[in-house]
Amino acid sequence: MAEDAQIHNSIKCDTLEQEEVQEDVGAGLVPNHQLIKSGEEIKLPLLSKNESPPVASPVNDGLSNQRLSSLDVYRGLTVAAMILVDYGGGLWWGINHAPWNGVTFADFVVPAFVFIVGVSVALAYKTVINRLDAVYKLVIRVLKLFVLGLLLQGGYLHAVNDLSYGVDIQKMRIMGVLQRITIAYGIVACFELFAKRRILEADKTFCGIIRAYCWHWVGGAFLACLYVGLLYGLYVPTWQFEAPEGTGSMVANALTENISLLQVDCNVRGSLSPGCNAASLIDRSIMGISHLYKRPSYRRTEACSVDSPYSGPLPVNAPAWCMAPFDPEGLLSSLPAVITCFIGAHYGHILLHIKGHRRRIWQWSTTGAVLVVSGLGLDFAGIPLNKQLYTLSYTLLTAGACGLAFMVNYVIVDVYGWKLSTIAFKWIGAHALMIYALVSCSVIPLAIQGLYWKSPENNLIATILGTLGLS
Q: Where do transmembrane segments lie in this chain (predicted)?
């Protein structure tokens, strides 16, 4: 998502050294009738069982400046998944975000974007000639992407079936998906520019990569400690907010006769509940409650919806926090998202420095499996999987799953060469930001519904939504 010409610059794998060609062919990871040499396909006759394959000439690093097809395909699949979630989540809860604890298919989409950005950053900054110029371009890019996120998700564009546009700056949503990705991209890119060591040819092993990028791991560990310390250490007092018009009479803890002011009783420390968590406290204190997301997923919990896990009317005496704003892309929960980006960068480092499909796949799959098991272990130990808070269990589980998905795409697209069958997703991935803005952020639907018959309600979008029962 946070990509442009520099982030998109990637690689075409894989020119192989003599031993690696023999290893990968023997393992079945490179079809024995097809080898890659200097970016060109060499057709070879099928080899007998005991026949040794020809070898390719050694090269410097096995990488060129062409795009990595599997990364584009993976990005395209993620954009398609986001569109499915945005427009189909209301039809079936399994492709909608979990109301609070737990994960669904939808909860893997944003981590996938952040992970992909990490891989792209590692590839884009593998060689930096002019660091000052790179920093200047990085700052400009971060500012442009953040402002674009404000326009797309800050409330300037209204919902479908609302032909008006514009937003009160006092109520503009500050954080969003693109803003979170931009923050992760900016931080990890700074580490790529300033905190990596030169890695020697003889040290291009898994441990050598860890040593060369040790400050990335230190940064990730620091963010994890900071996140845990704030989430569990901050004291959350009782707080109040103004209820949305017409909803105050439906919830408990109304403080005034006109029931416009609601109170959430907390006075706790370390709570992970929707109303009393430290992430919400930090967002309210720094950004202000009027700048938070107005339709949080926890409104579909049993406490807030009679039709849970779908949206529905409030139950009688629903807790006051059901009507409170909450931003799932808030400030505190963005810290572990940066960790996801660091993990993506690690996968990119393996791609850059480890030669041979078999060795790369082994390291990617091992890393992904360890992360998934660690995430599930933390969930079992009492740290719930929660996308809204981006808990560490959720961070590790989703990052590991994204790493495994990236590895599968790499095998299918770049090892076995299934590029024609994935060309549509590759195109989407190469134009991900444009498609995200036009489709996922409803720019195209909002433009189409501007054409109507006699009254604004009679437009194509309203007809489609009515047919699907979503209007």
A: 73-93, 105-126, 138-157, 177-195, 215-235, 331-352, 364-383, 389-412, 424-448
* DSSP letter string, 402-470: HHHHHHHHIIIIIIS---STTHHHHHHHHTHHHHIIIIITSHHHHHHTTSBSSSTTSBHHHHHHHHHT-
Q: Is residue 345 in some structural domain? A: yes
- For residues 325 and 294, is the Cβ–Cβ distance under 8 A? yes
Residues 218 and 299 in one domain: no
- Verify that 250 and 355 share a domain, yes or no: no
Cβ-Cβ contacts under 8 Å for 196 (sequence gap 6 or more): 212, 213, 215, 216
Torsion of CA 272, 274, 276, 277, to 10 degrees: 50
Per-residue DSSP letter, 255: -
Mark whether 300 and 344 lie in a shared domain. Answer: no
Q: Give the count of alpha carbons within 13 A of 101, CB side only.
A: 9
Written as one letter, the residue type at 439 is V
* Number of domains the chain contains: 2
Contacts of 80 (CB under 8 A, 6+ apart): 425, 428
Best CA proximity match to 320, nearest among 283, 275, 268: 275
Domain check: are 240 and 128 in the same one?
no
301 and 193 in a common domain: no
Summarize pLDDT for 78-93 with one digit per residue, the tens.
998 888 887 776 677 7
Whether 187 and 342 have beta carbons less than 8 Å apart is answered as no
| 243 domain residue, yes or no | yes
Residue 221 lies inside a defined structural domain of this protein: yes
Section 225-233 average pLDDT: 96
Shared-domain flag, residues 177 and 212:
yes
Radius of gyration of the chain (CA): 24
Distance, in Å, from the CA atom of 114 to the CA atom of 425, rounded to the nearest integer, reads: 18
Residue 245 structural domain: 235-269+293-323
The SS3 call for residue 62 is coil
- Shared domain for 361 and 216, answered yes or no, is yes
The pTM score is 0.80
Residues 223, 95 within the same domain: yes
pLDDT digits (tens, 9 = 90+) for 181-213: 999 999 999 999 988 777 666 567 778 888 889
The answer to whether 247 and 314 are in contact (CB under 8 A) is: yes
Structure tokens, 79: 């954009």
pLDDT band at 441 (very low <50, low <70, confident <90, very high): low
In a domain, 13, yes or no: no
Query: Residue 287's pLDDT is what?
Result: 92
CB 70 within 8 A of CB 414: yes
- HSE (side-chain half, CA atoms, 13 Å) at 425: 21
